[in-house]
UniProtKB/TrEMBL annotation:
PANTHER family cross-referenced by the UniProt entry: TRICARBOXYLIC TRANSPORT PROTEIN (PTHR35342)
Segments crossing the lipid bilayer: 20-39, 46-69, 108-135, 147-163, 169-190, 202-223, 261-281, 323-344, 356-383, 395-428, 465-488
Protein name according to UniProt: DUF112 domain-containing protein
Keyword hit for Transport: no
Species whose genome carries this gene: Thermovenabulum gondwanense
Length: 504
């Protein structure tokens, strides 16, 4: 079966009535969650997880994917109208989106953000179609040492995304690895960190960690200001939401240039939509003949980051589905969901469960069309969600968190864990400690330990097994580079700034 046949099969799966209904629901929910400041796709999917337990895995993943890229569409709404980004990936959309709205061009800003997201989403999905199988076939060469090296690289890259945050990233990473070790060791039968509590013998369910870190902590963070927060005045009446031909001509090249940038960044573990959007914005500002207009309502300054962050969300799904390694915090949550269903994302997923892999890819074509329809003609209606007072919104989120956690194991102990992880998440966000390394380590921690042990068993305890294949050597080298590169880059910059420095 060639790629086209696989894709047609995927459309057959995605276009069943049940999947279409959930695809529309996920797209609308993702757009709404993306609009709400502070919620974002990761929290949205974490809250949605308990609901997906009633679905088959294909429908669940289609719904979560729709929430993911729906949030990328919706994230710019609050950036444009309130100057408050829905999530980190929408920060760059504030720079020129809000000035456009203040200049009386809110309709054009809403339209170009949706158009840019749509074009980049479709182009990225086409790239996904042609890359999925080659990557999955390549990954079949992986054994325990290669998987260990791959996961180590993903953890290192996620923890060291910024030099300034490196120490915090490593703390977050270690905390996640510690959480993953709780429970009975499957090989030795020894209890680890259970403190005599029977419910902890099976380990801590990472869904509880995810909902606590993202859902509960968000409420705690906003609790400090919930009584002071009012509803910011928002424009709800619009003229025709569309752009002029001149605006189209100014936007199309930035969209086409920054889509591959966002897609590539999305494939890299730990990079994420914020970096993609900021890089795209800076690229276009440097390429522009009128850089002084950026920050004052330049439409290309909005089109470029919107294209990049949507392409990034598609790119991040590639390593998750083909290698079993998430490219972002959101895909880490989705990876955890797949494992709950008893599925192991990776190269065999496309062979053993083609309906999941190709059904999700085909649904992304349909989902982008649905999101474009939702975000252009219905934009005036949807932005009214932004006027919901926080004092109503956050109690609803608390209720969803507790119901969702109880639905997993029917255990009251999970309530205490939820609150504990909510408090941990609160302090992590308050002190700018990244949460993605913790979540990723929590999910892959058990696997990385098993792959390490299996490798040592294969080599009779010799660590040289990790240096016998080119793949594992390359991945270990990349992991090392991920850690030391920020320091090398900083050292070179410092040297250049010293008086008397001369380039060789």
């Amino acid at each position: 079966m060639d790629i086209l046949q696989y894709l047609l099969y995927g459309f057959k799966v995605a276009m069943t009535p049940v999947n279409i209904i959930w695809l529309i629901f996920g797209s609308i929910l993702g757009t709404v969650l993306g609009m709400l400041p502070g919620i974002g796709p990761t929290t949205g999917i974490a809250l949605l997880l308990p609901l997906t337990f009633t679905m088959n895995p294909t429908t669940a993943l289609i719904t979560m994917s729709a929430v993911y890229y729906g949030a990328m569409f919706g994230g710019s709404r609050s950036s444009i109208l309130l100057n408050i980004p829905g999530d980190g990936a929408a920060v760059a959309s504030c720079f020129d989106g809000y000035p456009m709205a203040k200049n009386g061009q809110a309709e054009a800003a809403l339209a170009i953000s949706a158009i840019a997201s749509f074009i980049s989403g479709m182009l990225s999905t086409i790239a996904f179609v042609f890359l999925a199988l080659p990557i999955a076939r390549f990954a079949l060469k992986f054994g325990p040492p290669e998987y260990f090296a791959l996961m180590l690289f993903a953890l290192a890259a996620t923890a060291s995304i910024s030099k300034d945050e490196l120490l915090k990233g490593i703390i977050s990473l270690l905390l996640g690895l510690m959480i993953s070790t709780v429970g009975i060791d499957l090989q030795s039968g020894v209890q680890r960190f259970t403190f005599g509590i029977p419910e902890l013998q099976m380990g801590i369910d990472f869904i509880v960690v995810i909902i606590g870190i993202y859902g509960m902590s968000e409420v705690f963070i906003n609790f400090e200001t919930i009584l002071k927060q009012g509803t910011k005045p928002i424009q709800t009446k619009f003229k025709r939401i569309w752009i002029t031909m001149e605006q189209w001509k100014r936007s199309i090249l930035p969209i086409l240039r920054e889509t591959p940038v966002g897609f590539f960044i999305g494939v890299l573990p730990g990079a994420g939509g914020t970096i993609a959007a900021m890089m795209a914005y800076n690229n276009e500002k440097q390429l522009s003949k009128e850089p002084e207009k950026f920050g004052k309502g330049a439409i290309e300054g909005l089109a470029a980051p919107e294209a990049a962050n949507n392409a990034c969300s598609v790119g991040a799904l590639i390593p998750m589905l083909t290698l079993g390694v998430p490219g972002s915090g959101t895909t880490a949550v989705m990876l955890g969901a797949l494992m709950i269903y008893g599925l192991q994302p990776g190269p065999l997923l496309f062979q053993q469960h083609p309906e999941i892999g190709w059904g999700v890819i085909a649904s992304m074509f349909l989902g982008n069309v649905i999101c474009a329809i939702i975000n252009i003609p219905l934009a005036g209606l949807l932005v009214r969600v932004l006027s919901i007072p926080p004092k109503i919104l956050y109690p609803i989120i608390i209720g969803i968190c507790f119901i969702g956690v109880y639905a997993i194991n029917m255990s009251v102990v999970d309530f205490y864990l939820l609150i504990i992880f909510g408090i941990i998440g609160y302090f992590m966000k308050k002190y700018d400690i990244p949460t993605a390394p913790l979540i990723l380590a929590c999910i892959v921690g058990a696997n990385i330990e098993q792959y390490f042990r299996q490798s040592l068993m294969l080599s009779n305890g010799s660590l040289r097994i990790f240096f016998r294949s080119g793949i594992s050597i390359t991945l270990l080298f990349l992991a090392l580079i991920s850690i030391v590169y920020p320091f090398i880059s900083d050292y070179i910059k410092t040297r250049k700034q010293k008086p008397g420095y001369k380039a060789i």
